[in-house]
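Worked Example 4.2. Consider the chain below.
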Amino acid sequence: MKPIHRNRRLALVAGGGVLLAAAAALVFTALQRNISYFYTPSEAAEAAIAPGARIRLGGLVETGSLSHGDGLEISFRVTDGGATMPVAYSGIVPDLFREGQGVIAQGAFNEDGVFVASTILAKHDENYIPKELQGISHELKPADEAPLTN
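Applying the procedure from the previous section yields the following structure tokens:
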């Protein structure tokens, strides 16, 4: 009798391990499809990314490269100081989007090597201050003059 229970327990543990491995494989493949790597223009040039493959391209909007087309269409160049890539976008751009500012564009390269963005995200540095707070002095009081709080 004991060997039968031992075999049943072994089968249950093995079956549980197979189910756990299958669940881990499903999670891994789902995450793999949704990961969008951040490429700089230099990395994108070296990687030889196939046209149509969706990626994120990030860098600075090259000064003097921004041009507005018909309607909401714009084109500009993204640079990382080493390489430069042309980008085309049709839509409303974020308020912080401008030349010389950091940008992340999500989309794909077309057959001509132009990155066609479906989404534009503008980046800002750590020195960002809202318009309402610009010009206000942020002097700290010495510890002995600061009010006591609970």
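The CA atoms of residues 22 and 80 lie 41 Å apart. Confidence is low (pLDDT under 50) at residues 136-143, 146-150. Compare this with Example 4.1 before moving on.
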